[in-house]
């Protein structure tokens, strides 16, 4: 199966938008002091470089013909000194400009990562992980050389070009005019090449993102398991080969775009010294003013000092246009609207009791006229109380629970904790107040201890053990080869489903939130494992306000209040006994839930077995 692309697509960009260029320049503003030092070094280096041809002319026209050995020695030392000084200046400016460029790249990476951390859950449900990774790694990495050297290259080459032109005019203005005649044509060619490469670069980065997505999805532990068990390894390899071949084509096109045109510029510039010698000879033959050998050699040397930075400037112009395509892709992420934001002066609660209320709550995944997922939900869960939400798949159970920690924001009504709208609470207060344990347990590729300390970085070893004991996972951890330092493997694949759930519960116990959301935390487990995990959940829920999304109704019969959702509306509410007495939707769900296989019935004790209702 070939993975499909993301539903989210960026708005179209103007390829020649000057605002993008100004925005790129603003990235360098914090480093203006260091760039000023680079500017001084570049100007000094250019002036030193221009001085060398004049020393050469004096050597050929004065020191050698007149046999002035003292002057010859001074001129030779001067040429050596200019080379040494120029090298020192180049090293210093490279060090500073590279540091500035890498800092700008660091700022961009950090800004994109921070922006993505602020995005709502809905963005990530619409966007492939590989696409996000490609923006941070490939796009920002692709502009490294340009960001690092462009500013220095432009200033250095521009200063060298200006200095060379002034010096050439001082030597011979007529030869200078001949040398400059083709410059406008060269500039026009480079701009055409730049636009072409910029377009191809945009396509190439999209293709790299597609490849990154395939790698991320198919080479994860889950992807490998699915591919192997479905017999699709060869098919996935074929899909990857196709994407890679398309990338090869784009890479070749990118490297060859305008190559012949740029090569023509190089050929013409390489031929210019011969044309200058030819023009000087013809001029002399026609009776024109005699040009000394020293002047002619110095002029050709200056001409090369003009052409080298000119070619570099033209190439830099091409690189800049190419990099603008990468910057635009980065700016697309930086400009994403943030749906869930913190108030300017948010409320911070010093002590959270845990009273949770849903007041006439409506919700839609597409706020602008989209179909509502929740309709007029009114619920009150007092501090320390328990609410169970049941219903068919797609009835809105998980969506309702996600409104409490603000994974989504309501589109109507409000959700409050201790009487304060969750939209008014500071993010850190809300994170400390609400803990979530879901059926999709996520563990980092790190040690058990590191995974637990993600909830509380300063937790002591004793606290880790206490949390693990409460979650009934300590004995298992202690029996591992490296105990709490055992590496869990990617997404925790060294642990069973029940063990991962108990690790997640221990992590939540360590954080100690007063409000607990249990989103079908045992639905993916077998019956025997479910009861083991349920004991850990009971320990976690003790004394906390608990909202449970129930898959198996045997786990919620003791809830203070049970709500049955149907198509986003409350169809029934009450205690377990009250709902059974109604003999409505909940009673039907209990009867369905109680239909166990004989094998299941043998594994259950009379106490554990759910009532038929």
Give structural notes.
This is ABC transporter ATP-binding protein/permease. InterPro entries: AAA+_ATPase, ABC1_TM_dom, ABC1_TM_sf, ABC_transporter-like_ATP-bd, ABC_transporter-like_CS, P-loop_NTPase, Type_1_exporter. It comes from Streptomyces humicola. Keywords: ATP-binding, Membrane, Nucleotide-binding, Transmembrane, Transmembrane helix. GO terms for molecular function: ATP binding. This protein is an alpha/beta fold. It has 22 helices and ten strands. It has helices at 18-27, 32-63, 69-118, 121-126, 129-142, 144-171, 173-180, 183-218, 221-229, 233-256, 259-285, 293-334, 397-402, 427-433, 448-453, 461-470, 474-478, 497-511, 527-541, 576-582, 585-593, 598-603, and strands at 356-364, 372-381, 386-391, 412-417, 420-421, 434-438, 515-519, 545-549, 561-566, 569-574. Strands 6-7-8-3-9-10 form a six-stranded mixed β-sheet. Strands 2-1-4-5 form a four-stranded antiparallel β-sheet, with no helix packed on it. Strand 7, helix 19 and strand 8 (545-549) form a beta-alpha-beta unit. It is elongated and about 120 Å long. 32% of the residues are buried.
Secondary structure: elements and pairs:
Blueprint: H1 18-27, H2 32-63, H3 69-118, H4 121-126, H5 129-142, H6 144-171, H7 173-180, H8 183-218, H9 221-229, H10 233-256, H11 259-285, H12 293-334, E1 356-364, E2 372-381, E3 386-391, H13 397-402, E4 412-417, E5 420-421, H14 427-433, E6 434-438, H15 448-453, H16 461-470, H17 474-478, H18 497-511, E7 515-519, H19 527-541, E8 545-549, E9 561-566, E10 569-574, H20 576-582, H21 585-593, H22 598-603
Helix pairs in contact: 2-3, 2-6, 2-12, 3-5, 3-6, 5-8, 5-12, 6-7, 6-12, 8-10, 8-11, 8-12, 11-12, 16-18, 18-19, 20-21
């Amino acid at each position: 199966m070939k993975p499909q692309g993301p539903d989210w697509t960026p708005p179209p960009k103007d390829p020649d938008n000057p605002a993008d260029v100004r925005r790129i320049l603003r990235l360098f503003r914090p480093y203006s002091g260091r760039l000023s030092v680079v500017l001084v070094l570049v100007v000094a280096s250019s002036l030193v470089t221009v001085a060398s041809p004049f020393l050469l002319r004096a050597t050929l026209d004065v020191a050698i013909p007149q046999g002035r050995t003292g002057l010859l020695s001074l001129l030779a030392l001067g040429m050596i000194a200019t080379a040494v000084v120029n090298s020192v200046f180049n090293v210093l400016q490279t060090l500073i400009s590279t540091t500035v460029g890498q800092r700008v790249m660091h700022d961009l990476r950090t800004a994109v990562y921070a922006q993505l951390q602020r995005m709502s859950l809905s963005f990530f449900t619409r966007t492939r992980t590989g696409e996000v990774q490609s923006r941070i790694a490939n796009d920002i990495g692709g502009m490294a050389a340009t960001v690092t050297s462009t500013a220095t290259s432009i200033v250095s080459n521009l200063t060298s070009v200006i200095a060379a032109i002034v010096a050439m005019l001082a030597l011979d203005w007529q030869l200078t005019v001949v040398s400059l005649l083709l410059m406008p044509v060269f500039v026009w060619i480079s701009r055409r090449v730049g636009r072409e490469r910029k377009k191809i670069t945009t396509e190439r980065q999209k293709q790299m993102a597609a490849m990154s997505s395939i790698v991320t999805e198919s080479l994860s532990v889950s992807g490998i398991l699915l591919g192997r068990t479905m017999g699709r390894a060869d098919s996935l390899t074929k899909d990857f080969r196709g994407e890679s071949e398309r990338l090869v084509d784009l890479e070749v096109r990118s490297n060859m775009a305008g190559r012949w045109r740029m090569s023509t510029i190089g050929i013409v510039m390489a031929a210019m010294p011969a044309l200058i010698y030819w023009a000087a000879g013809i001029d002399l033959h026609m009776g024109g003013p005699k040009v000394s050998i020293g002047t002619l050699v110095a002029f050709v040397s200056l001409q090369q000092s003009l052409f080298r930075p000119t070619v570099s400037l033209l190439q830099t112009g091409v690189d800049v246009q190419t990099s603008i395509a990468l910057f635009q892709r980065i700016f697309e992420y930086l400009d994403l609207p943030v749906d869930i934001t913190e108030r300017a002066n948010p409320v911070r609660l010093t002590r959270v009791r845990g009273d949770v209320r849903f007041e006439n709550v409506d919700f839609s995944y597409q706020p602008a006229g989209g179909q509502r997922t929740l309709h007029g939900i009114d619920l009150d869960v007092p501090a320390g109380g328990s609410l169970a939400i049941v219903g068919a798949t797609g009835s809105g159970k998980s969506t309702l629970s996600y409104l409490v920690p603000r994974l989504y924001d309501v589109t109507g009504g409000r959700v409050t904790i201790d009487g304060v709208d969750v939209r008014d609470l500071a993010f850190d207060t809300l994170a400390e107040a609400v803990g979530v344990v879901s059926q999709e347990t996520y563990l980092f590729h790190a040690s058990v201890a590191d995974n637990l300390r993600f909830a509380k970085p300063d937790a002591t070893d004793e606290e880790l053990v206490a949390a693990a004991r409460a979650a009934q996972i300590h004995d298992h951890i202690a029996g591992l080869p490296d105990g709490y330092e055992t590496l869990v493997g990617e997404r925790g694949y060294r642990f069973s489903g029940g063990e991962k759930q108990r690790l997640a519960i221990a992590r939540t116990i360590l954080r100690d939130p007063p409000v607990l959301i249990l989103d079908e935390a045992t639905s993916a487990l077998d019956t025997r494992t479910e009861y083991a995990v349920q004991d850990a959940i009971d320990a976690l829920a003790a004394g906390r306000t608990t909202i449970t999304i129930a898959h198996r109704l045997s786990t919620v019969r003791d809830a203070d209040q049970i709500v049955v959702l149907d198509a986003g509306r409350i169809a029934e509410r009450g205690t377990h006994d009250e709902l059974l007495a109604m003999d409505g939707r909940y009673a039907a769900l209990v009867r369905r839930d109680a239909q166990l296989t004989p094998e299941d019935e043998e594994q259950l004790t009379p106490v554990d077995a759910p009532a038929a209702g």
